[in-house]
Amino acid sequence: LKVMFAIGEKKEERESGVTMKVCAKQLAPLVKLLEPKDWANVAIAYEPVWAIGTGLTATPEMAQETHADIRKWIKENVSE
Hints:
Blueprint: E1 3-7, H1 11-15, H2 19-33, E2 42-46, H3 60-79
Parallel strand pairs: 1-2
């Protein structure tokens, strides 16, 4: 079984600069639930809540920055 785990912040969270804090809070339960080997079957999908059905989109820079922060979080909390 493969899992696509979607995370993302609300517009006001993005605007107040807490995007990664919100994403980390959403990711944290996975660390408790999954064994290290299970992560091979999990894909993290970053999808800002404010971009779903609103016509708004994250800029490539916003997405790249958040993706880098998510990768860093996973390295620090899962890989090490």
